[in-house]
Specification:
Length: about 450
């Protein structure tokens, strides 16, 4: 298609590393005002018919310019991706590159992208997706942090070289790591780290009867609204069993919800903050405990406002054991899964109600979890309303009001999936063997 030549005042000329490029201010506007090209939109920054000189790589600039023109990312084979990403970061268009590499998250459009082999001597135990598309993987007492390009690790994290129980991204630059207590030393507990430097910013403390106590920190959750809090299940040597709460910015303890007799909070497997209800879900599950306990805690009133347990329930068949649970606020329900990947639902509007097991969610090819690979099913919920469940070496996607299975993700390498996580428009699946994790992405939308 032939178009009229742009007005002279709309044309912009660059000399990049000795190579001349000519474009329009309309094209450069696609980069946004916060980019390198933003100041060019100001009249007093005009080149006055001349050209702007940039002492950077001209081949990469050509790719960036083409991306701004078409929205499509085409990387010639002679340009290393890391070099392009470095140059895109300089021009302030790294987000444009990421958006062009993979599309918005949809479980039914996910495609296998790559597998990453870890460097730790042992198998991984937990994986957490970062907001920017990177991830963190826990191996024993070490947490390995990968940038979004997955080609380079940041410095590894360790909290007093104690076994890591959970990891959570507080924001794109900082992670909280929970670890086991080391008796008599005060080691372990909970710490906040900077992902880039690996530096421990501060350790979170538990105070009981005006004394600082050592503790084992377990499951983690964060709440950005209203007060930027970090939650952790806690086990101490006296009666510091419960849920600790700290300020994300200062590291100061601001609350503690003590475990009541006959219930379980300090051994929790999962914590989840529910923004609409302003409550925290706490789930302690089999086999960590002989029975399962799921509750919602309101820290404003220090009340347990919803609870369910299988204590006293008849256990005639082992398949009814709950292995994981997650709240679905939009459905007023808590979804649970057993070892056969049957989904069950409990109504949040009815305290202590029975589980409604859904046969529609059952896989066509079911199979009990292998005895020699105790990777229990895990659940995850995406903002778009899709539910994900891992079982053996695959992940199932469930959609719709009845949560019907619509697709499965599977790779044959690495053994059973011991953990998975969704974030940054990616899904990461950590395998129990071979110290490897898979990356799943959605293809970018077609450029029209």
């Amino acid at each position: 298609m032939i178009v009229a030549a742009p007005a002279a005042k709309d044309r912009v000329k660059f000399n990049v590393g000795g190579r001349i490029f000519e474009t329009t201010s309309t094209t450069l506007a696609n980069a946004g005002r916060d980019s390198f090209f933003g100041p060019l939109f100001d009249e007093n920054q005009s080149a006055g018919g001349g050209e702007f000189f940039i002492d950077r790589n001209p081949d990469c600039f050509a790719v960036v310019l083409d991306l701004l023109r078409t929205g499509d990312l085409n990387i010639p084979p002679n340009i290393p991706e890391r070099l392009l990403y470095r140059e895109a970061s300089f021009y302030g268009v790294l987000d444009h590159v990421r958006s062009a590499k993979w599309g918005p998250f949809d479980g039914n459009r996910l495609r296998y992208s790559k597998s990453i082999s870890g460097t730790a001597p042992g198998d991984g135990t937990a994986i957490r997706a970062a907001p920017d598309g990177g991830c963190a993987v826990a191996h024993g007492s070490i947490v390995h942090v990968y940038d979004w390009m997955l080609s380079e690790e940041h410095p590894p994290l360790t909290l007093d070289h104690q076994r890591v129980n959970d990891v959570i991204w507080v924001d794109p630059e900082n992670l909280a790591v929970s670890a086991c207590e080391r008796l008599g030393r005060g080691d372990g507990g909970l710490g906040l780290f900077n992902k880039t430097s690996g530096r421990l910013r501060f350790k979170f403390q538990v105070t009981h009867d005006n004394q600082v106590k050592s503790f084992t920190a377990g499951a983690l959750a964060t709440a950005q609204n209203p007060n930027h809090r970090i939650f952790s299940s806690c086990k101490g040597r006296s009666n510091e069993y419960g849920i600790g709460v700290w300020d994300q910015f200062t590291g100061k303890q601001v609350d503690f919800f003590y475990e009541s007799p006959g219930w379980s909070l300090g051994d929790a497997d999962r914590l989840q903050w529910l923004e609409e209800r302003n409550c925290l879900l706490v789930a302690t599950l089999f086999p960590r405990k002989d029975n399962c306990y799921i509750s919602l805690l309101d820290f404003r009133t220090k009340d347990m406002v919803w609870s369910w347990s299988d204590v006293g329930a008849p256990m005639t068949v082992d398949e009814r054991r709950v292995r994981d649970g997650i709240a679905m606020e939009g459905n007023n329900a808590i979804c649970v899964v057993n070892e056969y990947e049957d989904l069950g639902f409990m109504d949040l509007r009815m305290n202590g109600g029975a589980i409604r097991w859904s046969s529609r969610s059952r896989l066509i090819m079911k199979g009990r979890m292998p005895d020699d690979e105790p990777c229990y099913p895990k659940l995850a919920l995406h903002d778009g309303g899709q539910l994900f469940s891992s079982m053996n070496d695959c992940i199932s996607v469930f959609c719709g009001p009845d949560m019907v299975m619509t697709s499965r993700l599977r790779r044959g390498y690495g053994g059973s999936i011991c953990d998975f996580s969704i974030g940054g428009d990616r899904l990461f699946a950590l395998h129990s063997e071979e110290n490897v994790f898979d990356v799943w992405e959605c293809p970018p939308p077609p450029v029209i």
